[in-house]
C-alpha cells in the first residue's frame, strides 16, 4: 500500500509534510504547545461558568453515598462532564493550531491528502499533535 503522505524532520522543531505534489512546512513552537496545554484550564473554567449560569456547582455533581457506616463520594458525573469539556476545548485548540501551521483546518487537510479511513485520519492527527507539542516519536519518521 502506497503512503499517501510523508512527514520528515528537518531540524529540532522543523518538519515537512509531503503529499501529492505539495509540501507544507510544519514547526513546533512553545506558543503552540502552551495553547495545547492551556486547553485543560480553559475547559475547566468554561465548565464552571456554564454550571454557574445553570445555577449549580461542581459539588452538586458529586453524589454522597453512605453504605455500611462508611461515606463514599461518587465523582463520576463531574468527571464525565469535565472530560467532555476538555475534549471539546482540545479539539478546538488543536484545529486552531493546525490552521495556524498549515492554513487549513485539520478536516480540510485530511481530505486534501486523501485520507479515507478513520484510522488513517487518527494516525495523521496523532502525528500532527506530536509536532505541535514537540513530542514527535522517531519511529514515525
Using brief descriptors, characterize the structure shown.
141 residues, three-stranded antiparallel β-sheet
Task: Please provide a written account of the structure.
This protein is an alpha+beta fold. It has one domain. It is 53% helix and 18% strand. The protein is built from four helices and five strands. Strands 1-2-3 form a three-stranded antiparallel β-sheet, with no helix packed on it. The radius of gyration is 20 Å and the shape is elongated. It starts with 5 loop residues before the first strand and ends in an 8-residue tail after the last helix. The relative contact order is 0.17.
Task: Indicate the topology.
Elements: E1 6-9, E2 14-19, E3 22-27, H1 30-53, E4 63-67, E5 70-74, H2 76-102, H3 106-113, H4 118-133
Antiparallel strand pairs: 1-2, 2-3, 4-5
**Main β sheet profile:** 3 strands, antiparallel
Radius of gyration: 20 Å
Number of strands: 5
Shape: elongated
Count of separate structural domains: 1
Q: Helix- and strand-based class? A: alpha+beta
Q: Give the DSSP E fraction (strand runs of 2 or more residues).
A: 15-25%
Outline of the structure:
The two termini are 17 Å apart.
